[in-house]
C-alpha cells in the first residue's frame, strides 16, 4: 500500500507541475511524511536456548523413565528431572565440571531417596489421581441419572431381574424347536 501511495504522490506532483491540474492542498503534507516501510519478516525467529536444556537432554538420555513422570499443572513445583538439572547447574556455578557435578547431584539424590519414603510418595500421588478419577466418574454418573431418569432406576448394584421361568433358560433367547419325531420302523408281518 505504501508503494501505491508513493506512486500516487509522484503522479499528482507531475500533473500539477505540468499544469494539467491545480496543486492539491494535501500534496505538501504528504510529501513531508515518509512512507511507512513494509514489515518483512523473512528471518526465522531466534531459537531460545537455556543453559539447562543440554543438561536436561542428557538427563533424559540416561533416565528415559523420567519423561513418564506425571506433571501437576496446578502446581509450580518442577519435575524431579528439572530439580536435578537445576541442582547440577548450582554445583557447576561453583566451578565443578559438568560430569563431576552430575555425580555429586546423583549421590545427593540417592541419599535423599534412601532416607525418605520415596515409594510412599509415589503411592500418595497414585491415590490422589485415583480419588480425582473417582470424583469425576461419580459426577458423570449423577449427571447421567439426572438426564435419563428411566435408565437411572436400573442401578448397577442390583442384580438383573431373575428369569421368571428358569426351565426355559434365558428369556431373551427364542425357545428351541421341539425335535422332530423319528419315524417308526415299518411293521413286520408275523408268520401265522
TrEMBL record:
Ranges of biased composition (kind: Basic residues): 170-179
Keywords: Mitochondrion, Ribonucleoprotein, Ribosomal protein
Tagged with keyword Ribosomal protein: yes
Main location: mitochondrion
Intracellular or extracellular location(s): Mitochondrion
Spans annotated as Disordered: 142-192
UniProt entry tagged with the keyword Ribonucleoprotein: yes
Compositional bias ranges of the Pro residues kind: 180-192
InterPro entries recorded: mS23_dom
Protein family according to the UniProt entry: Belongs to the mitochondrion-specific ribosomal protein mS23 family.
PANTHER family hit by this protein: EXPRESSED PROTEIN (PTHR35693:SF1)
Protein name per Swiss-Prot or TrEMBL: Small ribosomal subunit protein mS23
Organism of this sequence: Auxenochlorella protothecoides (Green microalga)
